[in-house]
Each structure stands twice: as C-alpha cells, then as structure tokens.
Design brief:
single chain; seven-stranded mixed beta sheet; globular
Length: 250
C-alpha cells in the first residue's frame, strides 16, 4: 500500500490512525519478533514524544538454561545483516551537555527502557516550541542510550526544512543532512551506542513503506513491519476519510 498524504485529513483522523498503527506494531513485536526478555508496550510519555511504543527489558528475563536469554525470531546483528536502508551516518556525542528539560518517562515497574518508537504527528511540527521540545527529547533519549525509531510521514516545514531527522542531526553533528528533493518524508532508526548511528530511508507519498530496524543493543535489532501494520491499521480508517486519502492527486 502506498503512503498516503495525511495532510489531506484532520489531525484527529491521523491521531485515530496513529493509535491503531501503534497497537498493530506492538502486537507484531510481541508476537515473536522480540526476544523473550523484551516486550513492547504503548505508554503515554509526558511531553511531545508520546504515546510511543516502548521496547522494555524485563527485570528478570527468562533463560535457556545457559544463563543467557534466548534470541527472538526477529533479532538480527548489524555485522551479519546490515539494515536495508540507503543512507547511514554517525556522530560522536561525548561532549553533549544535558539540557535543563530532560526526558520524563513514567513507568510503574523497574523494567529498563531499551528503545522508543515514535510516529510523528502534526502537533510535533505545529510551532517552534513543539519542534524544539521534540528534538531536545530525542537527543536526550540518545544521550541516555535509548535507541530510537522515528517515522515521519509529514512533509518538512520551515521549522524542519530537512525533516525531523535533519533537525535532530543538527544537534549531533556538524555534517548537515539533506533530504532528496523528491523524497520529503523520513524513516530513521538510531543506534544509541558510541558513536551514535543513524539509518535513514527517505521516502514520499505514493511510495511503499520500508520495514525499519529497531535497535535493542548498538549492534542488534529487529525489523519493524511498518508496511504490514500500516495496511492493517488503515482498514480501520472511516470510509469518509479513506475516500479523501485514496483520491488521485490533483
């Protein structure tokens, strides 16, 4: 299914789809893609980076009798199977100074956060304040060694002229990132080791979604089935809005 132009519909329509998509991604990850000692859970995070799918490390993971946690069916090593994206970049983060506003994550247990998945919403780009807050929290997450997968299906604005990744990368590196002129949407996975690595797949309206890596360690990841879960979630969009989204471009 091609990516739709979500600027055609209301923010509320995207929000409803967003919730369904998050739920389908969570189900797919928990249904065998993640190792047994990891799980994904949608949670409300205070601030612009929420609700997200969180990949969490259980406090007392099961073992296979050897003292080591067994791998899940979807776990891959970068050295053996590099993520299938067209662009990669890396940046050191030794000198990053924590901003005063820190990433706030609330969880009822002591389970350790490993990674976050964020579907960008129009509200994240709606003002300079919202954009700045989103970028700061993404950079802070990487500083804390939380791996990130960000899906941005909304075109750049004057606040992120090179997309969400361009805005984040400007805080990490002196080497600017530029989106291709005909691919203005962004899928990007970050490995939060040292150095920080970005795996970027530019895309556009009308293109199929690419499955993207979600890192569990700096060197291991699972592929998130973005295309299959997008299709599943889209079935729940009301017919009124599907007619608008499916209409040919004028």
């Amino acid at each position: 299914m091609p990516i739709h132009d979500w600027t055609r519909v209301t923010a509320g329509t995207w929000h409803a789809f967003h919730l369904s998509w998050i739920a389908d991604i969570q189900e797919s990850l928990n249904d065998g893609l993640l190792p047994p000692d990891h799980y994904a859970q949608a949670e409300q995070i205070i601030g612009p980076m929420g609700p997200d799918v969180l990949t969490l490390q259980e406090s007392n993971p099961p073992t296979n009798g050897t003292g080591h946690s067994p791998y899940g069916t979807g776990r891959l090593a970068v050295a053996v199977a590099p993520p299938r994206v067209r662009l990669t970049a890396e940046a050191e983060m030794n000198q990053y100074v924590r901003k005063q506003r820190q990433l706030v994550i609330r969880h009822a247990s002591d389970d350790r956060i490993v990674a976050l998945l964020e579907l960008v919403s129009p509200g994240n780009k709606s003002s300079t304040t919202e954009m700045k807050s989103f970028v700061e929290k993404a950079v802070e997450a990487l500083y804390r060694e939380f791996h990130l997968l960000i899906v941005d299906l909304f075109p750049p604005t004057r606040r992120d002229p090179q997309g969400i990744h361009g805005a984040i990368w400007n805080e990490l590196s002196d080497n600017p990132f530029a989106l291709p002129p005909d691919e203005r949407l962004t899928l990007v996975a970050y490995s939060a080791g040292q150095p920080k690595r970005a795996y970027i797949e530019p895309t556009g309206v009308g293109r199929p979604l690419t499955d993207m890596p979600l890192f569990l360690t700096p060197d291991d990841y699972v592929n998130v089935p973005l295309e299959a879960t997008y299709v599943a979630a889209y079935r729940g969009v009301p017919r009124k809005w599907r007619d608008v989204l499916d209409a040919p471009a004028t």
